[in-house]
Amino acid sequence: MKYLHRLFKPLAAVVASTALVVTLSSCANTTHAAEDGMVTYAEPNMFNNLYPPAGGYYPNGGVLNNIADRLLWQDPETLELHPWIAEDLPDTNADDTEFTFHIRKGVTYSDGSVLDAANVKKNYDLYAKGDDSRMLTPSEQLPNYVKSEVIDDYTVKFYFSEPSPGFPQSTSVMNQALLSNDTLDLDDTGFSPGHATDISGSGPFVIEQEDMGTKLVLKARKDYDWAPPARKDHQGPAEIEGINVVLAAEDSVRVGSLVAHQSDIARQIEAPDEKHLKDKNLQVLAAPTRGVNNSYHFHFRHPLLADKRVRQALIHAIDRDNILSTLYSDSYPKGSSILARTAVGFKDQSDNYAFDPDKSRRLLDEAGWIPGEDGIRVKDGERLSLTFNESVPQPRSREMFTKVQEMLKNIGVEANLYPGDRTAQDKAMKDQDSVQVRHSMVGRANVDTLATWINGKGRNSFLNYDEGTDSFGDPKLQDMVEEYFSLKSEKERLEMSGRMQDYLSEQAYILPLFEEPQVYGFQPYVEGFTTEAIGRPSFYAVKINAEERQE
Length: 551
Description:
Elements: H1 18-27, E1 38-43, H2 58-67, E2 72-74, E3 81-83, E4 91-92, E5 98-102, H3 117-129, E6 145-152, E7 155-160, H4 167-170, H5 181-184, E8 205-211, E9 215-220, E10 242-247, H6 251-259, E11 265-267, H7 271-279, E12 283-288, E13 292-298, H8 308-317, H9 320-327, H10 357-366, E14 370-371, E15 377-379, E16 382-383, E17 385-389, H11 397-409, E18 414-418, H12 422-429, E19 437-442, H13 449-454, H14 475-484, H15 490-506, E20 510-514, E21 517-522, E22 526-527, E23 530-531, E24 537-538, E25 543-544, H16 546-550
Parallel strand pairs: 1-10, 1-11, 17-18
Antiparallel strand pairs: 2-3, 4-5, 5-7, 6-7, 8-9, 9-10, 11-21, 12-21, 13-19, 13-20, 14-15, 15-16, 22-25, 23-24
Helix pairs in contact: 8-10, 14-15
């Protein structure tokens, strides 16, 4: 079968997106995608900031993972840590408050500058402390950081005020990607769209071109020769010439571009399209994100959700099996705790999340919420009306809400969806009078995932932290988090993580929906495509099978 005769096959889904078709077509050779050694990668959302602590947003992290290296490398299969820019794993003191790294010699940034101990210090001091004057926030993954010290040209030492056994793992993630000194001098605007070519990392690719909001061109560095020694899939420079990162916001366009061979790889393949791609002899990879599940988080400080019985009623009213069977695929396992089963420290909480709408109605009756004339429950003259955000990056968030809306109406609860783009959503989620139920997830692969997710001074995922009173809104939960960060061993932290999962379930603060993967579709001739530990794309080991491409 020849691909050539199908290359310009009409795509009904693309008709409404002419500009995007032109962009995709311009990235592909007229004979075949990847013919020129450039891989075309269709991305549903373009990056919004390349400052590494913002790397948790998948489009940001997807770019950083290919242009910037880290001190350590985490094997995506075993989660074991290995040296990368560091020559070896760090030397630590007895209570894990001091870490000494020896830096590889001969590593350079794409701007020609040297990666040495002083540069590593500058990276970490910025990421740990941020810089308010430049609107650069600190990384949530560096709690209790005190300082770093240059011991010699290629040795740097880090100091923490409390035991930090999770620090070595954190040095392997995008939030601590290493950048050149000049890049670290940029302000927030310098890391934002329109300035991508100013970002200099030591990774196997460098950003050569940016068409703001629509396209990035990454080119392979021919001098790259410092991949993690433990990587058995590839060493030396990347085999491909580079990557065309192209915005393809519509699901149908990403799928259509793959089927028409106008793109080589695409991210966020929706569940209904997985079988379609496989039927077309295309490959599908569902990479686990290993962290906080795709979940609904209840803002329990809001008066409508302050009563645990109301939160429990919401949980038992939502039929997750129905949602998963109708909207998703086997790539999306049902959540059984706030943490994914593949996450470090997972503890099963399934019994707390059973579907039982009759129980929901009894709980609301007990809480004093009585059905009104239109069926929506009322108490003291107030309707039980809640607003959910639409989580734009998460798969099928709006469609899931529509089903949830009907399920909640069945027990007398009105559910509304907050409209707007990502900027509007982010703003609304910080105001509990605007959004009371937050739809979110976090990809992480270390023991501190849950504690940093809850921590009001870190991610503050419940958005309940009151800076004026230094309060989470739940003293017991706050004490558990604070105690967690004082624990010296990973074993103790794992035990506390289990206790926090128990407590979150008992208090009905969250409803885990599913374990969210990052699902990619790609051509059969693409070999070596992988992800890092939590599902961000890695193009370093990609190669094009010429024989397969000609079939």
